[in-house]
Amino acid sequence: MDVAAAQSSTEAAVVLNGTDIPLADLLNPDLVARAASQREQFATAAPYPHIVLDDLFSPVFLDQTLPEFDALQDGGWMEFRNERETTRRSRPQAQFGPATQLYFDLVSSPRFIAFLSELTGITGLVADPLLRGGGMHESRPGGKFDVHLDFAKHPVTQLDNRLTLITYLNHGWQREWGGVLELWDADTGRCAADVVPVFGRTLLFAHTPRSLHGHPVGITPPDGRGRRSLTAYYYTNGRDDEAAAERFTTYFAPKPALTGRERAGEVARAVVPPVLYDAARGLVRRAGRGGN
Predict the structure, then answer these.
(1) Range of the domain at 73
(2) DSSP secondary structure code for residue 125 in this structure
(3) Which UniProt key words apply to this protein (predicted)?
(4) pLDDT, tens digit, 9 for 90 and up, residues 116-164
(5) How far apart are the C-alpha atoms of 105 and 145, rounded to whole Å?
(6) CATH number of the structural domain spanning residue 175
(7) Would the pTM count as exceeding 0.85?
(8) Degrees (nearest 5) of the Cα angle 111, 113, 119?
């Protein structure tokens, strides 16, 4: 990756695989400028705060990341194959290609974090240079990732997880191929919104005890391609919204076959501190006995 001056002007450019991309074009300036005006849309979105931004990043830039998925050596991937997920993610501190590395440098930059803060109203955001849980994500044919809550705290820094940023890289992706990201309502245990993972689409959502999401249907693209994305997380040192939790691992949601009450109980078990959860169960049991 080289940064050079365009010969016809003083505008700086980055050169990726022989393609010149003006630095000013890496991010869509119109979307960045509208960050504050989109805060209400983010905050009031159902079933929890989120926003979908198409063409936030230059498509020419994102196109340069695609061959780097194939170029990443097998040792750079972590494979997950179990009942809940069939997918793979890049290892922490994997050696990315130049375009992919530039993407993560860009979304970790002070300018981009200021954009996120203006859009969401969350101050003190911190990017994760370790990319724990983030990085390059790919599901191959048949792949899925059941509905889940992400980890509430970073496993190393113990900072509070606040935001997830996902940029999709799938040209011409069709809904019927599966892989549609579902955003679930924690009260009903059902999908309330979804995001088709088409190329250039970026999803930003808040991490809360209610931010259930996943793509539980195995993908079936007719040409055998994978479902690809780039993911980054953002943290704060503490939180002021009473949504703090001590969970350092992913929690998978109960299956829809459970009753609404059972689903609510399972979600509560995942997000409420154990002492409070056990105390609440005790109160419910005593109240039930008192009525007999």
Answers:
(1) 28-253
(2) -
(3) Dioxygenase, Oxidoreductase
(4) 999 999 999 999 999 999 999 999 999 999 999 998 899 899 999 999 9
(5) 27
(6) 2.60.120.620
(7) no
(8) 105
